[in-house]
Write a structure and sequence with these properties.
Elements lengths: L1 E2 L8 E7 L6 H6 L7 E7 L6 E5 L2 E5 L1 H4 L2 E5 L7
Antiparallel strand pairs: 1-6, 2-3, 2-6, 3-4, 4-5
Amino acid sequence: MTTLVDLPHGAPARVQAFSPGSEHALALMQLGLVPGTRVTVIRRAPLGDPLEVDVMGARLALRRAVAAEVLVETLVEVVQP
């Protein structure tokens, strides 16, 4: 498992959990980042902080330190011909 910070640009992933002792888990869940939700990193600021993340069609800006608390599983998309 990887974190949201380490997710490559444009790669879809699914939220699995939050880091143990996460201070922001409740706030992130209130924003829609609940386990099982699909997320995609849309872009990063020039210096890497913050990240723009797509969560169910909504765009969120998350600081790297907060995004590092979100554990995700990278999804493999199948392209139909």
